[in-house]
Amino acid sequence: MKAEHRQIDYGSIKIAFTVNRRERTTLEIAVEPDLSVTVAAPVDADCAAIDAKVRKRGAWIMKQQAFFRQFLPRTPERQFVAGATHRYLGRQYRLKVRAGLIDRVRLFRGFIDIETLRPKTDAHTRGLVEDWYRDRAKLKFQERIEVCQERFATPARVSPEGIVVRKLSHRWGSMSPAGRLVLNTRLIEAPVDAIDYVITHELCHRLHPHHGKAFFKTLTAVMPDWERRKVQLERLMA
Predict the structure, then answer these.
(1) Residue range of the domain that includes 94
(2) Whether residues 93 and 187 fall in one domain
(3) Are residues 52 and 89 in the same domain?
(4) Which of 16, 83, 149, 180 has its CB 3.0 to 4.6 Å from that of 176, i.e. a possible disulfide?
């Protein structure tokens, strides 16, 4: 059944939410880490009754959004010049930019070493570094997905249908209803422990679409120290 997009007024604030109708008897409201609001409702639930329920839970929704807002990934303006500091797998590296006969980026003696035909063109350097991060992310994320799946009793049940690595503005990862795992390219800057937390969190969504009790019970069972990893990610990548 197609999702419905609705909106209610809560004082001077408008709360937008998505309604997913299912064969169920109760109505459940969830606030996701990207601040979106979703409602799981019975197939025959009246729209006015849904709106009233969301309005009644307005204060709770605002509180949850305020909590998640502090953990959204920041995207500060980054410099792509010699000496600028960038993270890779939790460690800080300085950029070394030098003229060369080819365009190449590699980790070398504590630096992200950039050999380039255009060493004085910052935009060109930026493109080289971002391509390098994306290529590294694709390889590392695939490796960690396979490791994280083994945390589950039946790894095949949580296997994603597809994997996409791209820039995301407001979250580290997501699992689509169709089972496609999307991971933020910037996550490659975080330690492996934190990468595994994000991946495991999203794999849990293959079993539980929302952040209810069953979801957190599963997450805790397969990764007992997930809260420590989450705090590590938020502090390091803020």
Answers:
(1) 85-237
(2) yes
(3) no
(4) 180
